Amino acid sequence: MAEIEKKPLKITETVLRDAHQSLIATRMTTEQMLPIVDKMDQVGFHAVECWGGATFDASLRFLKEDPWERLRKLRAGFKNTKLQMLFRGQNILGYNHYADDVVEYFVQKSIANGIDIIRIFDCLNDLRNLETAVKAANKENGHAQVALAYTLGDAYTLEYWKDMAKRIEEMGAKSLCIKDMAGLLVPAKATELVQALKESCSIPIDLHTHYTSGVASMTYMKAVEAGCDIIDTAMSPFSMGTSQPATEVMVEAFKDTPYDTGLDQTKLAEIADYFRPMREEALKSGLMNTKVLGVNIQTLRYQVPGGMLSNLVSQLKEMGQEDKYEQVLEEVPKVRKDFGEPPLVTPSSQIVGTQAVLNVVSGERYKMVTKESKKILMGEFGQTVKPFNPEVQKKCIGDAKPITCRPADLIKPQLEDIEKEMAQYKQQDEDVLTYALFPQVATEFFKYREAQQNKVDASEADTENKAYPV
Ligand code: CO
């Protein structure tokens, strides 16, 4: 038998971003991260995903932290390891479309503050919504990785994925990620998919999945054997459930195979020791709920991401209509079909989910329609892979004429006005971007920051007086 050529598998570690976003509502603080950074830097990860996604919003809103400050501190600590962020295309880290000048400036500042790899995706897989960010990353000498939101449905054939991969490479992406946010990619399909993508593009392929449906580590095994270059994993205390497969386990699984990662289990064990008490604490306080830890087979039945399931439960709870849960779950795929069968990922997952709840609770489909549902049907999020249901479109937007161009083409440059609007709070250039994405949350944060600074000033003046008695 011919010996298989050695091809070490690369590992992207997610404990500082997706893992805590998935398991403890994105509540890990910078202070909790910093003591372990030096050790993580010595492992030899391909990259550490540590910024973007929901972390930006959560830092400001719940932790009262400046996300830019976090990035600079992580950059200072990670001297040898590439830092990766998750970026929602024209939505940046928010939930709406922004003008190109905001997208470009955000990319520029992310890289200037320490990001190496920007993983860029669009919730409809409309590649037009990625172009500005990809170009900007290339201009700043960053690594633009384009992520395809993986989903199932009639339109999502191997031919579809192959065509997308080719176009992504042509767009100038340096690598391609299959972003399986719901854990829908089963092992045998991973073999087919990776083989197909490898046929149509020559950039490295990264697979990102979640353990939600219980198949993730098998899927990684098959994908790697089919040629996948990079997998995303999380240190064991923050792995499994709605997070990623455990780093140590995947490293061991590929040991002494042609895909041996070469990562040192002793170092990984020390890192796991650091995070384990944090897990115990989160379990005790209820921040980590056992619901996110098990296997959720409904995610395979209804093709709904884990995070979306818990959102639906809480929406129904608020309305006192928890008994409608099954009905809503059955309504989700129907709404998705009416809306052109998009992947379910932020923000399309929230839009489809909320509309499904309204359709069931109001007793008549599309009797109540959210602003966001109308926006999707107006083409304002971009193009879906399939056409909208014309009857539903008519009922929701009437005779309004949907747009067909790239949505951001209709948005005028925004930066100048934003800068004027928030000038009184500006302490660093990056504050303009923070405000551009989350005006209300940012304002609250800026006020809090100022109050803290005044407090510190006062106490410093105090110690100065004590240290130098006149
Ligand atoms: Co993820």
What does it look like?
The protein is 49% helix and 9% strand. It has helices at 18-23, 30-41, 55-63, 67-77, 100-112, 131-139, 158-171, 187-200, 216-225, 247-253, 265-285, 298-302, 306-318, 325-338, 348-361, 371-377, 390-397, 415-421, 430-437, 439-467, and strands spanning 10-13, 47-52, 82-87, 117-120, 143-149, 175-180, 205-209, 230-233. β7, α9 (216-225) and β8 (230-233) form a beta-alpha-beta unit. α2 packs parallel to α4, α8 (187-200) runs parallel beside α9 and α14 (325-338) packs across α15 (348-361). The structure holds cobalt (II) ion. Cobalt (II) ion is lined by residues 18, 181, 208, 210.
Order of strands, main sheet, comes to 1-2-3-4-5-6-7-8
Mean pLDDT rating: 94
User: What is the element string, with H for helices and E for strands?
Assistant: EHHEHHEHEHEHEHEHEHHHHHHHHHHH
Give the helix/strand class: alpha/beta
What is the number of helices?
A: 20
Q: Could you give a short account of the major beta sheet?
A: 8 strands, parallel, barrel
Tally of extended strands? Answer: 8
How big is the Rg?
A: 23 Å
Low-confidence sequence ranges:
465-470
Give the overall form: globular
Q: Which hetero compounds are present in the coordinates? A: cobalt (II) ion
Beta-strand content estimate? 5-15%
Give the helix level as a range of percent: 40-55%
The oligomeric state is single chain
How far from one another are the termini?
Answer: 87 Å
